[in-house]
Structures are given as structure tokens and as C-alpha cells.
Design the sequence.
């Protein structure tokens, strides 16, 4: 086919190829992919610029979204409101955008998947981060291009003081390629850029120490770091993201799973629909009901289980068949120099750094040019004031303004701008005060000009400006990380999810830490010989023993008043006879620092922690104050010279405190006697000590409980709490147990109730597990009965309580069953029955009768 002036045939294949490539590049560059410099797609950028044109600053009144969409469509983006309004809505959703650029009002949808109201009902204005993106737009900081109808200019890119691309991320599908950049935490990003400014040759691995991974607005858990590492090093990777879930007990032995955070870009209603479908298809046989109890306080998706169902098994099925576990594909693709390019983490940060250097220099040149022009004008005005009479006469003698301007230039050596400024000068500028002001302005302008020239000459000063900007952004918009990074999915596989969760955590005197399933220890009778808990190294012995669940946090409180944080599942699970792993490889401890208390915590709520020191000081602090320990630990209590931390207990805030000493004294007083203090407080006196005595234990107690006192020679007793009269804090206390030659010093004091079991451990690594019910209650100030038979030169060093019907935090965690009934009940030494009548082990008529001081 030929036309006039166009001869020759045109192959349709070539025409389609060229046209499709043109279309593809238009979609890639002008629609689907963000610019690496400001992190925005053209539609997003045009919305923000249109809102700026409408003067919808963060402090202005909101305007109807219909007006914003209309202005955007009219001036910059003629693609219809169905393309503009959804983009506007997403920029204002705090579950879609990590740091929203739009401040919305009205129904902007919900995380359930509900759509926003029509744009005639909703209103919006710019959010503060958007103000930083648009800052200095009128100072020639970026290139301008003509809009679609060639009626005005629009910015090709925004100045981008706020690092929008990496902080808010971006998603988009182009032709033959797609981008998926996850959001990050501003504080971490700012620290990463500052690290890059300080160390330009740093590797991606170095930046990952500052930016550990994405931080989604919906929270959740990222399982494993390999996907993050691969994405940051190559620009592509896959992240396994899980919802945050905990278990709650219901009546009649039923339980429910509660979802408080879900994976990014997943709607709550989609999860509910998936669960319903899975129940119908028998993939979730243990689920009886699912409902959404979310409110203004936050998300709460409840999955109720049938009676007797193992919640760990059900959780595993939920991860497999629903979007409570999802895969987020990372593809760090952006427009660089008008071309799509896949970047690694360092290249993303370098792109921001280089662009900000360019913006600051262009802004500085603009300000320098403006200051120099003004300096030139001020200099001319000052010249005019020197010979003002001649100036006035020259102007009066001129017939026209151009003639007056020309005469001023010719007679007084002035430039055209200076002459124009003199002609426009008001008579008020002829006063002496105005002259002083002009001289002051000239001096100030000279200083500014010198500063601008120095800034342009020295790149180090430009980098300092970037640092200051980042510090300001951190201060204004920085917040805590929402997404937790946990172990790999392979490390928390099906076997680990279904496994027993009650764990015995032990630590030796030399600092070897391990966890052993609670089922590995069998229940024994009082006075039994016990079983070996570990093969200690020569000169070492087990010093700490604790029972917790695998999903608990463990707060490690040291003798120096520091606290460290660790998940139980991060502690290596080993056999009962294994040595363990050195705690110095897991926690950052100083030389001579030892662990004194280990507190399991499911969540950091409004409960209290009660501290007791060796010298008798006590302190009470909110548990939530310890929710964010640093890598090297944080201060839990300030200790006086020569003092050390002995015990830390969890309380409801309205219980009673009991403190016991090595010489057998004890004091009971209301917890309210100790006012709640901050982490760095010293505390107040809890018990008055005799010379040579010191505190060995402390606990918070409730009514109808008993105190178990254990001495180093294996003797102990259970006494009702009522026998310890309530006193005021700071007294001497009362006699608790006879700390004589037969019993030895007191080594432990803890609260017990019927149904509990206790575990006693000796210096040589022997352990016995026995029910508290086997030890009948006896009075205060007695010698007690034999709890464990120990060898010569051995002694009891640690005691722990094992609750039969509740976990370490008073709730049943995933997969935890109540400890099984005693599997072995050894006959006590001497042929008596445990807690029975007539034998030497009984307190009725034997040598250990209450009040009998005979050894």
C-alpha cells in the first residue's frame, strides 16, 4: 500500500513490533514503575502536585476528593477518575502505605477489603511526609516538562527529601516486567543512608546490620533472613510472611486462636473466606467458628477450636491452607535514567544519596543566584542614597521612565536592574534607619553568598545537609518496627509446631544454656535419688533451672541489674545429658556478669515486675518498660555499691511480696508498699538484715497459697501463707525455717499450691521431680522434712515449680498438655509413705515434728 509521498510496502509484522515496543515502553516509564529518585509513579506524583496547586498543605483544611481528582485530571493526568481516585485512596490508607502521603477524612476503606466511599463524600489534604517530598519544588531543584496539553509545566520528579521509594515501597505490573518493593522502617533507612554517607565503600551485608529487613504497615512476622539477604544483594527474593497469632483458653476445655496481625496486602475478609472454604473441604477439621472482632483498638480475628483439638496442629493447617502464611516476592525494579533497572539495597540508597546531592546543589545555585541579584540591587540602592539629591534631580529632569533609567545608568555608573530598583524605591527608603537596614541586609547577603559558594565547592558540606535532613525525618516520622523477623520456616516446621512446648531451661554455673522437653523428667516421690539432668564439665554445676514454653520470651536479669531478651525456641534443644551452649554466644554479657532470674513472658502488658536485691532492696516496675531491650541489654535496676540482684517476680500489681533470707528469716508485706518506679530507679528497703545475713529469694503470693522453703542439705517444708503475718515493708520479718547445722543455709523460697510439682537440682547435676501434694503443710519456724537425698559433699542449688494445669504465664500455649501423672513414686528412705502416717518421713510423731529442734 502506498500513499502520496510515501512509497513502498510496510510489513505488518514490523509495524506491530515497533508499535508494541513503543506501547510497552510507555507503560513501563509513564505508568507502572516508580522513579528511583522520589519513589513515585507519574499518577501519584501528579496527584500530589495538583494538591499543592490547590494549597492543600498538611495544615490547611481538607478538600473534597472530587475536587482533587478533577484538578489532577484537568491539568496533569487525563485518564479518568477511575484511574486517579483509587491511587489517591491508597496513598492515604495506613495499612497499604507505611508512611501515608495523604491525610484522609471519611471512609477510605478498611483492611477487611472494603472499598472507599465515593469521592464526593471523602476529603483529603497532604500528609506531612508529602510536604517533604514537595519541598523546594519552586527553587529550580528538578526538571520541568510540559503537561499533556502543553498548557503548563509539571515536575518530571519531586525533590524527594523524604526517601519515599524504600520507606513506602511500590508495586506495579508493566509489560513484560513488574516491580514489588517492600516498605521499610524510616529510622532504619535513615541510619542506613547515614552509614552509606560515612562509609561509601560499605557492602550490602554492612547495610543489613542497620536495615535488617522490610517493615510492613500491617506488622506480621518475616520467617527467615535468607530471602531478605538474597533480595538485598540481587534485587530479587522471596519472603515468607506469617500472621501474628496467640492462643486463648475458653470454658469447657476449649481454646481459640486470635490473629492480631496479618501479612501485607492481604484482606481480612479473604482470610475468613479461605478458612470457611477449608472447613467445608475438611482441611480444617478442628475449627468450629471464625469471626472478626476487630475494632478501633486493632485487629482481632478469632478462630474458635473444637473441644480437645490441638491448636498447634490447627495452626499448621491454617498456615498451609490460608493466607495466614503468604509469600511476598521482592523485585527491586525502578526507573533509573529513564530505563527500568533492577537494583540491590546499596544501589537504592546510592540513588537517593546522588539525587539529594543534585537537588541540594540546584537549590543552592538558585538561592545563590537570587542572593547575588538582591545584593546587586541593595548595592545600587546604597549608591543612590549617597548622592540622593543628584539622583532625584536626574529623575525629575527626565521626560520618561526609560529616559530616567538611561540617565541614571549613564550618570551614576548603575546597571539597568539597579536603575530600575531606584526608580521603584519609595520615599520612605530615604530615612537614616532605612539606610542602616540596607547595610545590614547587604552584610547578611554577603554572608549567605559566601556560605552558598562554600556549599557548592565542598561535597562534604552537602553530605552534612543530607545527614541533618535525615535526622529531622527520624525525629518527626520515625517509629518502632512493626514486623518481627524470626527464624526460618524450616526451623519452625511441622514437627516443631506439633512438638511438646513445655521446656526445662537450664544454665550451668559456667554459663552453658540449653532446653530439654519437660517430658524427659519423670515424677518421683519425696526423698528420691533423682535422675541426671546434665553432664557438667569439671568444676561446673547447674545453677539455674526454669520451666517455660517454646513460644515464650525469656527475660534474663543479671546480677548487675541488666536485662536481656531471648525467645525460648532460640535456645538450643538438647538431650538431658548434653552440656548446652555457652550463654556468652547468645547474650551480650560483660566479664563477671551472671544470670540471676529468667522470666517467661508471652506479652508485655500492664503487669509489674518486683525486684529484690541481696542487701534487701526492692523495686517495682511495669513489665511493658522491658518490651524493647537492646542487643547489649538494658538497665533493669540501679544497684548500690556492693549490692547485686537476687530475684525478679511477675505480679498483677495488687499482690503481696515475701522475701526470704539465708538465715531463715522472711517478711510478708503488700506490694502496694512499693510504688511503681522506672527502670533506672534504685528501689527502697524491703527487709532489714542482721549482720552477715542476705536475701536468697523473693516471690509474690496470693491468698490460699503456701511457701516452700528449701535448704542446701535437701530439707524443706511447705507452710500456709497465713502463718506469715502481714507487716510493713522494711521490717526484720519473722522466722521462716530453722537454718541450723542439719538443714544448712536456705537456698530457695517460692510460692506453691496444691497440684504443683517441684524440681530440685543439686550441685552435682542430680534432679528430682515430685508433687507438692506429697509434702503436707507444717508450721512456720520448723525444721522441715527431707525433700531429696543428696550425696556427701553435694548440696541443693536450684528449685523450680512445675504447674500441672497452667503454663508459665497462666495460659495454655500452643500444644501444651498438663504434665502427666507421676510415672514413678519412690518409697522414701526408712520405709515410710510420702506424706503418710507412722514412718520416719511423716511429721506425725517423728523426729521432724513441727516445733522439734532435734536434728
Sequence:
Amino acid at each position: 500500500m502506498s500513499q502520496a509521498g510515501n512509497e513502498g510496502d510496510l510489513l505488518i509484522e514490523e509495524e506491530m513490533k515497533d508499535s508494541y515496543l513503543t506501547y510497552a515502553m510507555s507503560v513501563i516509564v509513564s505508568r507502572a514503575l516508580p522513579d528511583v529518585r522520589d519513589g513515585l509513579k507519574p499518577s501519584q506524583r501528579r496527584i500530589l502536585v495538583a494538591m499543592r496547586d490547590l494549597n492543600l498543605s498538611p495544615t490547611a483544611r481538607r478538600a473534597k476528593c472530587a475536587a482533587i481528582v478533577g484538578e489532577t485530571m484537568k491539568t496533569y493526568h487525563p485518564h479518568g477518575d477511575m484511574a486517579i481516585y483509587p491511587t489517591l485512596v491508597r496513598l492515604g490508607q495506613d495499612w497499604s502505605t507505611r508512611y501515608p502521603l495523604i491525610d484522609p477524612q471519611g471512609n477510605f476503606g478498611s483492611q477487611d477489603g472494603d472499598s472507599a466511599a465515593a469521592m464526593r463524600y471523602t476529603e483529603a489534604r497532604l500528609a506531612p511526609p508529602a510536604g517533604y517530598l514537595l519541598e523546594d519544588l519552586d527553587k529550580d531543584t528538578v526538571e520541568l516538562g510540559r503537561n499533556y496539553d502543553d498548557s503548563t509545566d509539571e515536575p518530571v520528579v519531586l525533590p524527594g527529601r523524604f526517601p519515599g521509594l524504600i520507606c513506602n515501597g511500590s508495586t506495579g505490573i508493566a509489560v513484560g516486567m513488574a516491580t514489588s518493593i517492600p516498605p521499610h522502617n524510616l529510622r532504619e533507612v535513615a541510619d542506613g543512608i547515614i552509614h552509606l554517607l560515612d562509609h561509601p565503600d560499605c557492602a550490602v551485608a554492612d547495610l543489613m546490620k542497620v536495615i535488617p529487613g522490610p517493615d510492613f504497615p500491617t506488622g506480621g512476622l518475616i520467617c527467615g533472613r535468607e530471602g531478605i539477604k538474597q533480595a538485598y544483594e540481587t534485587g530479587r527474593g522471596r519472603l515468607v510472611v506469617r500472621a501474628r497469632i496467640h492462643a486463648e483458653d475458653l470454658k469447657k476445655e476449649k481454646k481459640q486462636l486470635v490473629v492480631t496481625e496479618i501479612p501485607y496486602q492481604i484482606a481480612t475478609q479473604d482470610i475468613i473466606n479461605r478458612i470457611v472454604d477449608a472447613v467445608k473441604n475438611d482441611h480444617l477439621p478442628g475449627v468450629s467458628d471464625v469471626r472478626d472482632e476487630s475494632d478501633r483498638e486493632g485487629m482481632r480475628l478469632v478462630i474458635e477450636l473444637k473441644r480437645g483439638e490441638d491448636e498447634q496442629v490447627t495452626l499448621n493447617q491454617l498456615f498451609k491452607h490460608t493466607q495466614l502464611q503468604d509469600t511476598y516476592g521482592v523485585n527491586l525494579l525502578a526507573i533509573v535514567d529513564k530505563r527500568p533497572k533492577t537494583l540491590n539495597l546499596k544501589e537504592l540508597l546510592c540513588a537517593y544519596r546522588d539525587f539529594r546531592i543534585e537537588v541540594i546543589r540546584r537549590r543552592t545555585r538558585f538561592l545563590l543566584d537570587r542572593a547575588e541579584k538582591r545584593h546587586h540591587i541593595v548595592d545600587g540602592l546604597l549608591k543612590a542614597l549617597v548622592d540622593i539629591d543628584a539622583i532625584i534631580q536626574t529623575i525629575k529632569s527626565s521626560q520618561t521612565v526609560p529616559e530616567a533609567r538611561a540617565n541614571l545608568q549613564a550618570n551614576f555608573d548603575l546597571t539597568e536592574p539597579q536603575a530600575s530598583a531606584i526608580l521603584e524605591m519609595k520615599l520612605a527608603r530615604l530615612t537614616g534607619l532605612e539606610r542602616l537596614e540596607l547595610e545590614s541586609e547587604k552584610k547578611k547577603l554577603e554572608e549567605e553568598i559566601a556560605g552558598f559558594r562554600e556549599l557548592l565547592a565542598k561535597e562534604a558540606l552537602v553530605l552534612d545537609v543530607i545527614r541533618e535532613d535525615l535526622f529531622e525525618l527520624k525525629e518527626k516520622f520515625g517509629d518502632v518496627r512493626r514486623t518481627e523477623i524470626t527464624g526460618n520456616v524450616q526451623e519452625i516446621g511441622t514437627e516443631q509446631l506439633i512438638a511438646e512446648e513445655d521446656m526445662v531451661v537450664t544454665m550451668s554455673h559456667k554459663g552453658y544454656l540449653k532446653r530439654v522437653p519437660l517430658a524427659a523428667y519423670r515424677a518421683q516421690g519425696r526423698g528420691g535419688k533423682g535422675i541426671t539432668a546434665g553432664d557438667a564439665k569439671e568444676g561446673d554445676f547447674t545453677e539455674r533451672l526454669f520451666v517455660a514454653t517454646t513460644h515464650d520470651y525469656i527475660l534474663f536479669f543479671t546480677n548487675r541489674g541488666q536485662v536481656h531478651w531471648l525467645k525460648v525456641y532460640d535456645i538450643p534443644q538438647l538431650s538431658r545429658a548434653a552440656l548446652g551452649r555457652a550463654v556468652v554466644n547468645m547474650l551480650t554479657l560483660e566479664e563477671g556478669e551472671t544470670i540471676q532470674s529468667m522470666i517467661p513472658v508471652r506479652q508485655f502488658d500492664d503487669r509489674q515486675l518486683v525486684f529484690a536485691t541481696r542487701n534487701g532492696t526492692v523495686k517495682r516496675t511495669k513489665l511493658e518498660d522491658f518490651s524493647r531491650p537492646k542487643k547489649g541489654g538494658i538497665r533493669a535496676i540501679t544497684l548500690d555499691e556492693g549490692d547485686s540482684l537476687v530475684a525478679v517476680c511477675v505480679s498483677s500489681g495488687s499482690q503481696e511480696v515475701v522475701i526470704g533470707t539465708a538465715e531463715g528469716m522472711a517478711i510478708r508485706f503488700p506490694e502496694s508498699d512499693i510504688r511503681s518506679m522506672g527502670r533506672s530507679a534504685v528501689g527502697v528497703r524491703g527487709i532489714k538484715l542482721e549482720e552477715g545475713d542476705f536475701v536468697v529469694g523473693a516471690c509474690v503470693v496470693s491468698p490460699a497459697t503456701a511457701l516452700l522453703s528449701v535448704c542446701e542439705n535437701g530439707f524443706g517444708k511447705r507452710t500456709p501463707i497465713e502463718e506469715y503475718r502481714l507487716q510493713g515493708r522494711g521490717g526484720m520479718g519473722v522466722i521462716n525455717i530453722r537454718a541450723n547445722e542439719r538443714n544448712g543455709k536456705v537456698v530457695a523460697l517460692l510460692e506453691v499450691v496444691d497440684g504443683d510439682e517441684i524440681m530440685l537440682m543439686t550441685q552435682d547435676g542430680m534432679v528430682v521431680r515430685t508433687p507438692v501434694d506429697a509434702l503436707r503443710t507444717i508450721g512456720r519456724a520448723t525444721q522441715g522434712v527431707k525433700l531429696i537425698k543428696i550425696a556427701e559433699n553435694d548440696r541443693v542449688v536450684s528449685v523450680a515449680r512445675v504447674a500441672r494445669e497452667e503454663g508459665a504465664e497462666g495460659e495454655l500455649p500452643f500444644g501444651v498438655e498438663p504434665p502427666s501423672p507421676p510415672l514413678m513414686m519412690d518409697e522414701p528412705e526408712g520405709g515410710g509413705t510420702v506424706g503418710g502416717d507412722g514412718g520416719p518421713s511423716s511429721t506425725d510423731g517423728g523426729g521432724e515434728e513441727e516445733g522439734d529442734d532435734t536434728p
The domain at 25-186 is CATH 3.90.199.10 (Topoisomerase II; domain 5). The two ends are 120 Å apart (CA to CA). Residues 491-500, 803-855 have pLDDT under 50 and may be disordered.
